[in-house]
Amino acid sequence: MTKNIKDQQHSEDTVIDLYKMAQIAGKKWPKLLLVIILFSIICFFGTVFLIPKKYTASSKVIIVAKNDNSSQSISYTEVETAQKLTATYTKIMQSEAISDIVIKNLNLDKLDYDNKTYNKVVSVTAEGTTEVMNISATTEDPQLSADIANEVVNVFTKQIYDIMQIENITVLNTAKVPTTASSPSVLKNTAFGALIGFLIDGFWVFFITMHDTKLKTEEDIKEVLDYPVIGIIPEFKIGKNTGDTY
Q1: How far is it, in rounded angstroms, from Cα 157 to Cα 165?
Q2: If residue 124 lies in a helix (H) or strand (E), which one and from where to where?
């Protein structure tokens, strides 16, 4: 029984605190809104003028399932084998066996490229459970992004026979020079700035609520002092121009 009373009191205190927070937020909403707008503007201009734009170019290849000479159809096992090869081919494209040649052919060593830098720029992914592989390159230069993506495919299709002793790669499409930046996202960063402003507003209102010790209503007096209120003296002003309150 005692526990239920304490839980009920705790619940009431929580409701009262939330109500006070809502009251404070209602009174200070212009300042709270200003904080949200301010952080949104900061993130917007920071994204537009401070963060370098990056461009992504992509090419696609497919691992072709090889059928034997006695049949014109391709078995499920052959398709499944081709799908499993995507993981192996991904590792090969990210290895120095491919990156060193790509860097050499495009003179990327002048830009201080090594295998680590190459793997930050080049991304190789399989599209779902298909045999299609997407090779993309992301740099601050749209032309360079397209050149790297295409060169990775060119080098890989030439080197894969020496590495795996098989030829089962077909190029679906080559990378084109991107005309729009892939990152950063102005909309997402601006929304993130608004979220930061909203969180700061929340902490600010919470801090004010927790440190507000003023007794403002009859209920506050009863709750804190645990005495009945005998009477209330209204606030009134004396004088026309003094503005004094008694």
Answers
A1: 12
A2: strand 122-126
Q: Which of 143, 165, 168, 169 is nearest to 154 (CA)?
A: 169
List of residues 6+ apart from 142 with CB closer than 8 A: 55, 57, 177, 178, 179
Of the candidates 203, 216, 233, the residue with the CA atom closest to the CA atom of residue 32: 203
Alpha-carbon dihedral of residues 117, 142, 148, 57, nearest 10 degrees? 100
**What distance in Å separates the CA atoms of residue 190 and residue 184, rounded to the nearest whole number?**
11
Q: What is the distance between the alpha carbons of residues 246 and 238, in angstroms, rounded to a whole number? A: 8
Alpha-carbon distance of 229 to 200, in angstroms, equals 38
Which amino acid is it at 7?
D
What does the alpha-carbon distance between residue 124 and residue 47 come to, in Å, rounded to a whole number? Answer: 27
Q: How many other C-beta atoms can be found within 10 angstroms of the C-beta atom of residue 43?
A: 23
User: Is it true that the peptide bond before 30 is cis, omega within 30 degrees of 0?
Assistant: no
How far is residue 231's CA from residue 223's CA, in Å, rounded to a whole number? Answer: 16
pLDDT string in tens for the chain (246-residue length): 444 434 444 444 444 567 777 888 888 889 999 999 999 999 999 999 999 999 999 999 998 765 555 444 455 566 566 667 888 899 999 999 999 999 999 999 999 999 999 999 999 998 877 889 999 999 999 999 999 999 999 999 999 888 888 788 899 999 999 999 999 999 999 999 999 999 999 999 888 877 766 666 666 666 666 667 666 666 666 655 555 544
Question: How far apart, in whole angstroms, are the C-alpha atoms of residue 56 and residue 138?
Answer: 4
